[in-house]
Design goal:
Elements (H helix, E strand, L loop, with lengths): L1 E9 L5 E10 H14 L29 H11 L2 E8 L7 H9 L5 H8 L15 H9 L3 E6 L4 E7 L3 H5 L4 E6 L2 E3 L30 H5 L4 H5 L8 E6 L10 H5 L3 E6 L19 H11 L1 E2 L3 E2 L6 E6 L8 E3 H14 L3 E4 L18 H6 L8 E5 L20 E6 L30 E4 L3 E4 L7 E4 L2 H18 L5 H10 L18 H5 L23 H12 L8 H4 L9 H13 L9
Parallel strand pairs: 8-12, 8-14, 9-12, 14-15, 15-16, 16-17
Antiparallel strand pairs: 1-2, 3-5, 3-6, 4-5, 7-13, 10-11, 18-19
Helix pairs in contact: 10-13, 13-14, 16-18
Length: 600
């Protein structure tokens, strides 16, 4: 059978015109494509295609240098005789597919998690779901280390160990790398203090709206009341909040408990099921989390409402406010895995782990906490993280805000002006500060004098400032968009929020794409999604992977189905989609592993 290879070019009016170029035996083309799939190792182009998110074994080569000189010096200076470290493993104790399948059969995912993952084509157990090899942890413990936590997503475990044990452990055949365990110091963060500056009286609304009280202005700025009038409240959507603790008895959260919408909670500091304040803890322990939860989803007439006041919640207590001691990032990673396993759709977090890192490490692929955040998109989760309050300098967004495929959130005032302390991009890895793939923050919301529930009493209210209060507003809007479009992928949700924001036509590293607009995001028709970053994403999923190659083959030689975006298929920029584009895609994905070109 001979199949004609054609190119497609757009002509005025939006129509497409096919032009036959050459003919090839169909069987030969299919065979060549299959050989590429079978014999050439694929490369994950975007972070959401992390190899740990595949349903197959993952074996990593042992690093020649398992501990860098900089890391060793830092550990000696910080920890003295006892080092707190991450130990990364080469595998999970097996290497063949049969063993993977056996291990996978024992992993049980909740229906919520399966439903969420199915939106990104992952409705089965992946390598990241398999537990870390217990025998590896045991061998390290036998060498004098105390095990803290294990991370199935990172295939790593955190330990405290004598400094003189580092080399013994680093030389184990299954250890690929050792890194310091970064921490976040529990001192007050810039901009978190309660404030009433900039508060304006709310304007009147129609009788159909809720009584928002003094939270009205922060919601109006992002057009949330209009969405509430249409009946969207976040119902059926789950948000996980990772913070310092929560005054669960506050009246702003009474509807959540009365309706059974607090699905789970865990204290990762004290290892128990209570995320409220506990005996011996500072009264500040639940100050931040209480305010953040209320800004995202509180519900108290005349006092405070959050965008997602009808959503379900998972509460994670990860930050210790009771001392000056750094709280390590393994709490945060454990909370992410906890929320994923239960089935969260959105994660709200506002921590920044800098510790031993420098700005050169804010590149989306170095900080451990960033590596964990990079998997969220591929698991079907919308990660919303604050841009931090270390601005206004460039590259002042701190990990995990530098992660790929998340929403890093900046802070604006009631007038829409960026807060001076709001973290700025770009991430360190880009050579072009205007590279749309690495602009940070992505979006903004109000983070100056936000109305919030107070930890002081069950019916007390206060204010909060900082990017950590802008972030729950954005996370709440994400819940509204998911409720309106439950089949949308995280990429589509993020694009809807970015491409309808106030500065979508001219994003930058101060405001990102601008202040979000909840109603516009819900009504987004998909315009602007084509070729936003780089070419090659022919299925419009937000990442370049095997599916894109398959669709390009189908489009050119088999079904001749049209592409979602013609510009995405025109990889060589010739103006037409042809065999040269397929050849270039094969070369870049499997041979040279080169970067795809930026969009025209």
């Amino acid at each position: 059978m001979i199949l004609s290879i054609e190119t497609i070019r757009r002509i005025p009016g939006g129509r497409r015109e096919r032009t036959a170029l050459i003919s090839y035996p169909k069987q030969l083309l299919v065979t060549l494509s299959l050989l590429a799939f079978i014999f050439i190792p694929a490369k994950a182009v975007f972070s959401s295609e992390h190899p740990s998110l595949q349903a197959q074994p993952l074996n990593v080569e042992k690093e020649a240098t398992y501990l860098t000189d900089r890391a060793r010096t830092f550990l000696e200076d910080r920890d003295g005789q006892t080092a707190k470290v991450w130990v990364f493993f080469t595998d999970k104790g097996f290497s063949d597919q049969d063993e993977f399948d056996s291990r996978a059969s024992a992993v049980k995912l909740t229906d919520r998690a399966l439903t969420r993952r199915s939106k990104v084509g992952r409705d089965k157990v992946v390598f990241a779901d398999i537990a870390v090899a217990s025998q590896y942890v045991a061998q390290i413990e036998q060498l004098g280390a105390r095990h803290r936590r294990s991370s199935r997503i990172l295939n790593a475990a955190s330990f405290e160990m004598p400094l003189d044990r580092l080399d013994h452990i680093g030389n184990l055949p299954f250890v690929t790398e050792i890194r310091p365990l970064a921490g976040f110091t529990g001192t007050p963060r810039p901009g978190d203090e309660a404030s009433t500056r900039g508060i304006q009286p709310p304007v009147s609304l129609s009788e159909e709206t809720l009584d928002y009280g003094l939270s009205l202005n922060q919601l109006q700025q992002i057009n949330v009341p209009a969405v509430h009038v249409r009946g969207f409240t976040g119902s059926g959507v789950t948000m996980a909040i990772m913070d310092d603790g929560f005054r669960k008895s506050h009246v702003a959260f009474a509807p959540h408990y009365a309706e059974g919408r607090v699905l789970a909670e865990w204290d990762f500091i004290n290892s128990d099921g209570n995320t409220a304040i506990e005996e011996g803890e500072s009264t500040l322990q639940w100050s931040h989390g209480t305010r953040v939860w209320s800004v995202a989803g509180g519900a108290s007439d005349g006092n405070v409402y959050g965008p997602a006041y009808g959503a379900s919640y998972i509460l994670c207590k990860t930050e210790d406010q009771s001392s000056e001691t750094p709280v390590e990032e393994d709490n945060w990673v454990a909370a992410l895995e906890f929320a994923d396993s239960i089935g969260t759709d959105v994660i709200n977090t506002s921590l920044g782990y800098t510790d031993w890192y420098t700005s050169a490490d804010f590149d989306g692929k170095t900080a451990v906490i960033t590596l964990a955040a990079n998997t969220c998109d591929g698991l079907g989760i919308i990660m919303c993280n604050s841009a931090g309050n270390d601005g206004p300098g460039v590259t002042s967004v701190t990990p995990p805000g530098d992660a790929y495929d998340i929403l890093t959130v900046g802070s604006v005032s009631s007038t829409g002006t960026i807060a001076s302390s709001s973290g700025r991009g770009p991430t360190y890895d880009t050579g072009d500060p205007n590279d749309p793939a690495r602009i940070k923050p992505e979006v903004c919301a109000r983070g100056v004098s936000d109305r919030a529930a107070s930890y002081i009493g069950d019916s007390s209210y206060t204010y909060g400032s900082g990017t950590s209060f802008a972030t729950p507003l954005v996370a709440g809007v994400a819940c509204l968009v998911i409720e309106a479009h439950p089949d949308w992928t995280p990429y589509q949700v993020r694009q809807a929020m970015k491409l309808t924001a106030s500065r979508a036509s001219n994003p930058d590293n101060t405001y990102g794409w601008g202040i979000v607009n909840a109603e516009a995001a819900i009504d987004w028709d998909g315009s602007g999604i084509c070729c936003e970053d780089v070419v090659g994403n022919v299925d419009c999923s937000g990442r370049i992977d095997i599916t894109d190659l398959q669709l390009l083959v189908d489009h050119l030689y088999l079904t001749l189905d049209p592409l979602c975006c013609v510009d995405e298929g025109d990889i060589d920029g010739s103006g037409v989609v042809d065999i040269a584009d397929l050849s270039l895609m094969l070369e870049q994905m499997f041979v040279t592993l080169g970067a795809f070109q930026a969009c025209p």
